[in-house]
Structure formats: structure tokens, C-alpha cells
User: Fold this.
Amino acid sequence: MPSKAASKPKTGKKLVIVESPAKSKTIAKYLGEGFVVEASIGHIRDLPQPSDLPADLKKSPIGKFAVDLENGFKPYYVISPDKKKKVSELKAQLKDADELYLATDGDREGEAIAWHLLEVLKPKVPVHRMTFAEITKESLQRALGNLRELDTDLVDAQETRRVLDRLYGYEISPVLWRKVSRGLSAGRVQSVVTRMVVERERERMAFRSAGYWDLLGTFAPDASAGQPFNAKLTAVDGRRVASGRDFNDKGELTAKNVAHLDEAAAKALAEALQQADFAVRSMEHKPYTRRPAAPFTTSTLQQEAGRKLRFSSKSTMQTAQRLYENGYITYMRTDSSALSDEAVNAARRQASELYGPEFVPAAKRVYANKSSNAQEAHEAIRPAGDSFRTPAQVAGALRGDEFKLYELIWKRTVASQMADAKGSTATIKLGATAAGSAAGGQDAEFSASGTVITFRGFLAAYEEGRDESRNDADETDRRLPNVKEGDALVATDVTASGHETSPPPRFTEASLTKEMEERDIGRPSTYASTLSTIMDRGYVRKQGSALIPTWIAFSVIRLLEQHFTSYVDYKFTAGMETGLDRIANGEDKGSEWLKHFYFGDGDDAGLLAIVNNLGEIDARDINSIKIGEDLVLRVGKFGPYLESTVPTLDPKTGEIIEAARANVPEDLAPDELTPAKARELMETAAPEERVLGVEETTGRTIVAKNGRYGPYVTEVIPELTEEEIANQPVEYYKNGKPKPPKKPVKAKPRTGSLFKSMTVDTVTLDEALQIMSLPRVLGADAEGNEITVQNGRFGPYLKKGSDSRSIGSEEEIFTITLEAALEIYSQPKQRGARAAVPPLAEFGDDPVSGKKIVVKEGRFGPYITDGVTNITVPRGTDVEELTHEAAVGLLADKRERGPVKRTAKAPAKRKVAAKK
Assistant:
């Protein structure tokens, strides 16, 4: 790492630079005198948009991507506009420092941030690279004793990944703009993950259910007061009874020599077994052992927080980031499940103290590190420190999501070093011969299993959650009666039960993260951001916890599969991750790897050749999906719609429509759009457009239409004729020559959504003109503030400045008076369906502000306010215990601390010419 000895006098100042302000504050507490800790607030440099490049570079090999294609894919970096002030501050701090410590995270991103700082700050003092997996005093002391050089291989891997993503996105996205829709984006990881979700939906769309029946019986030992238990029919005449796993997704029975019961056979057998003599045929006992799950990696933390806490991946990582930066947990981006010796000892010690020595095994548990990149293999995610703080010990400092996530991490870590859970599993097989004529003589065998936990072991601390899957077996944690072979049993109830096979379950954020990890798609640092991206881009939406692809995602993935096959292939994408790992390990060079990716090599065509030889892409075909025989779904500019491929008779008008259409509701999942549902939508579709008449004052035609967001009315503004355009006033250049006629600015038509009581079929011209006249001015209040009434997304409302108030019904829009509006504004403002809530307590006037002190219920709990300063009621303090003096003191402390500093918004982008 370059550094020069300083010739200036020594000051004793040691400048430490980290990424975030929160991290800098925590570190500053532990480093002590002489250390000054500053935050870069993330990356200070990045690739600019090509449009922001200096004019002379736009026509150079750098101009297309802000990457020099002819010089080893060298990036053209600029200091981000919103980081220029921060860079100046860091340079000022460095001027009188004796040493510089780059203490950014130890992964690729952190290493790259440190390298950019080194390149921009150009320090003339000794520079040290300092990394740590947790922010504790002990960890920082160890880090200061193990300083190292900057890892240029990690920097090369991060830079390669950044350039790779620029090449991928900037070459493929424009194809999506031309053939699907403007504003779409393709990404090396996001497109592949979108494909996973689309493929799962395709499986659900192609799925055909199959029916099957079985029997459930309730049995008890004969002539005793034994506990009744349930058992399920497993075999008829020696043949196993078919279950859901015996059918494929086409609804076909694939298993051989099984008994497939239909409703009639199942009910007949159940009836015949009501009076049958049941007996135990076998009783088997097996020891039961269950081992604890490994400590959390990034992937398993996101999965478990999704299952148990209902956190999104993004929320999980944001919360984990805060816990790490404030010294509560270790670094949260890791694919390692290994624990340090200190952590193992801490977990074992705590388990022994809390649960007893018998809950800790004699030997330490060692979990293998799955990381394919040893240089980036951090520890597992665990509580920070050489001794762990229990949830009770941090309850006073952590609240809400932070406390829940810390508790989850603590439990998992401690449980990982605890003893196995022990028990026994019993399986009873019982049977009888059916009596009667319908099913007489058939031999029926039932089975029941139950597990008894005799030693809870790690389960005393923690139990891992599970994702939904098809054909889940019933839980077996139950106790069965103590019977032996040959014992008689009484059937108190035998009933037939029908079932349908189920389609593959949709992905949740947890199960999709697991799938990404198993397929080696992405890395721990990208899981959460990838999931956020595919939802933000409109490719996937959430319904409850399920991830559902949109129709536009189908079009995008179809285009990519047909014309960029390799770039959405799972193995190819995993191979790219492996390639980046090899670069991080120093086994490959980024420039050579990028050259092969972009320009190709021999028979292996690169991205450039594929883009340049796409041929003709039929956009209509790409955006069409067949639904049944005569219907297709088309992805249009304003959303998906159904279109008939054969002429259709309109039952209302009797006319033949060449290509009848119907909008598809946005909340209808793709697998729910069956041919029958599509036909229903076509039959109930309102007319696309209906002419209502001509407005007398303007002479413009008024029409009612069905739009993407519901029915509406609008006016048709005719375009100017060529003659009218030619007759416009002529403008001249300074040299006297006439300017060519300007294309007239298209006037914006008046529009308005129909009331809920109206339809395109029934709305009248007068009603349409009334709707288009909104908002309606009612008048002004005593201060001269204008009051209007209008219709909005959430219903009709009054508006006075920034103060909006809901009114009862849409019909009131044209009848409400100024007096009625003023009466509404004289009442306390309502929040949703509730009136303004009175304060929880009142304490008279504040001696500083002179305003009344009250306690109110807020989003995050009760708080004290005088209308100017707010302060949350301290945790553990009841509102009833507060006094006037205490409230005044809390407000005074808050004023002294001042307002919370918030990061200013980034200024508008400017063209920059700074260069690497």
C-alpha cells in the first residue's frame, strides 16, 4: 500500500475511516485517545451515466459504458456529486493526521471503498488496512494487532462485478425497451431470479389437479380407558393407498401397484369397517435424535426472519446492519456458518448457565464453512463479544424489530452449541377385514406414528422454522398408547376423506432466497437487494407472503430465454459467480475475464456478438400468451388485456367484432387466468369506448372509456390540420430566414373517473361534463382560504390548502354547500375511521415554550410534547407515574440535545469531468 513518510511535525492523530456514521460512533467509543473516526458514507466514486461524460469522451471507446473497452475494461470513475463535500472533509482531517486506518468492511465492497479512498485522498502518511467482524473493544484491539495491506484481488473482483453489471444491463435493457416496454431493465442476477418466479408460475398454470380418497379412523385399546388416537389408511389388500406424491403435475397416477380410491370406494370401505374387529399388527419403537441447526449465514437469517418474524429480506438486512454498526452482532453479510473459538466458548458457557450442564455436549460442535471464497469467509452471524449479552440484558437498549432480530440470532447461536434432542418414535400398524356386501372381504391396514421427546436438548432454546411444501406429512409429535401385537382395538369412528393434489407452492422471500443459495445465484450481499429490485421494477408483486410474477415479467423472460439464452441460464449465472470468486482469490484477472465475456473467444460468442446478431424479434409474439383455444393475453402499453383471435358476436349490439378485448384485473394472478376465467372476463367486459355526445361550448366529442385504472370520461381534442399548422404565425431567425413550422403542443384533455354508481354503458353526457368540471370551488373561509370539493383515489373529499377532509358519498360532490364544508372543518380532523384521539395526560404549561404539555399515543408508543418538542416516554415508565416536573425535565433534555440530524437529499446530477 503506497505511503510516504510525513515531514511535518507529529500530532499524534490517527484518522480512521469507516463507511457509516453509526459504525463510526460505536468504534470511536472503543479506540480511545488519539483516534479520530470519520465515515465516508458508502462509496465516494462510481461509474457515471454515459450521458454525463465530457463531450470528448462520448465518442471514444469509453463513451458507451463509461468503461474503456480498448484498454482492459478500465472504468472511468467520478466522485459522486453528493460526496464532494465529504471528500473535502476527509482531506481536511487527513492533513494533520500521522496515520490513516482504512477500516471499511472486509468483503469485496468494503475493500473497494477502501481502495477508492486511497486513490482519491492520496495520503502521504502511513496507511493501514484494518478489518474486524464485530464492533467490540476486544475485536478492535485484535484488529489493531493484525493490520494488513489492501487486498487488490478483492478490489479487482468488485470492480469486475461492477463493470460486468454495466455491460449486461446497458446492452440487454435497450432490447427490452424496444420490444416490451420503456423503462425496463435486465440484470445479471435480477433477470435470473425473475425467471425462477416466472417458471414456478408456469408450473402452476400447467398444473392439473387429481383427486384421491383415503380413510381416517379414531381408535382406542379395547376394554380399557386408553387414550384414543388417530390412524390413517395406508394399504388395502396389501396394496399401498395412493397419496398426493403418487401423481404428477398433469394429474396422472405415476406409481405402480397402488390402490387409488375414489369417493364411492372410500365411503363403502369406511361403512364396512364401522363394525369390524381391529387388532394391532405391529408395534415398532425407534430412537429419535434431532441435531441443532448451524448458526446463521446471511441466507438462513433472511429465511428464518421471514418465517418467524414476517420480515422482508430488505427489512432483515437493514435491521441487522443497525445491530452490527451499534456493536450487537457480528458482520451480517457472510456465507460461513463457522464460529470462532471465543464464540463457541461463550455459547457453551451461556447454555450451561441458563439451561444446565447436561444441555451442553462434551465436545464442541464444529460447523463446516460452505464459503467457496476463503478470503471472504467471515464468521457466522452471532451476538458480538467474547461473552454474549442475553435478550434480557439488551431489552433496555433495543426495541421493536432490532430486539426481535437480536433475540433470534442469540437463540440460534446458543442452540447451535447445545445437546441433541432425544426421544423415541413409535409406529403402530393395525388392521381389520371389512364386513358387508359393498367392500366385504377387503383387508384394510391403518398406521399411526408418534414421537415422544424425552430430553429437549437444544429445543429448550430454539427450533428452526420450515417453508411450505407439497405433500407435507402430518406432525408426529404425539404420544401413542402402550399396546402390543395382537391387542384388540375399538374403532370409534372411520370416515372417508377426499383430497386434491396441490400445485407447487409459490416462492416466498425466504424460500426464494434458499433457492438462490442452492443454485449458487448471487452472493450474501446481493440476496436482499435482488428481491427488492425485482419488486421495485414491477416484475414481481407480493400477495401476503407469496411472490407472484406480473405479465410483463412473462414477456421479459420469454424474450431473454429466446434471444439471450445463456444469460438467464442458472448454471451459466452460477459460473459467473464462480468466476468472480476466482478473481477474488487471485486465480484470474478481471480484465481477461471481462474480455471473454464481452468479446467472446473462438466458438464461444460474447455478449457483443449476440446483441449485434439478434435478427428480427417479433414484439407482438413476445408479448402474447395463449389462453385457451381462441384467446390470447397481450402485454400492452397500458397493461395486460385479453384479445379474441376469431371474430366475436357482441350480444348487446349484435355486431361482429374482429378482435374483441377485455382488460385483465391487476390483482388476478397468472395461474388464476384459466380459459374459463378468461371467457368470463370477455363476456362481462364493458365496451372499450362509448361516444356520449358533443359539448356545446367547445364542440368537442365526449367519450366514456374503460382504462387500466377503471372507467373514465374524457374529451376528444382534434389534431390541427396541415392547413391550420401552415397558417400559424411564422417565426424568423436572426438572419431573417423563416423558421420551419413548430409542431403544435398537444392540448391535455379534461378527464375524470366515473363514480362507483356509474358504468361506461350508463353514464350520460351531462354526468360526464359534471365529472370533468371537477374540482368544484365552494368558496372561501373567513381567512380567505379557498375550499374545493373533488373525487380522489380514496373517495370524495374537501381540500383547503394542505388540509383535506373526506365527505360521505360521491353524490355529495355536486350538492355540498360552503356552510356544510365549514362545519366539517370546524370539527377535529379524523385519522382514517377514528376521530382525533384525546391526550393520555395533561401537565399544564411548559416554563420554556409557555405551551401546554400533553402525553399522546404515537406510532412507536406514548410521547410527551408541548407542540414544539417531542420526546418518547422512557421505556418502563407508565404514563400514570409521570409528573409535571418529570415531563418538563424530559422536554428540556431533548431541547438540549437538539433535533435529530438527517442526511440531506442528494443534489441534482450534474455533468462531471473528474477522472480516475
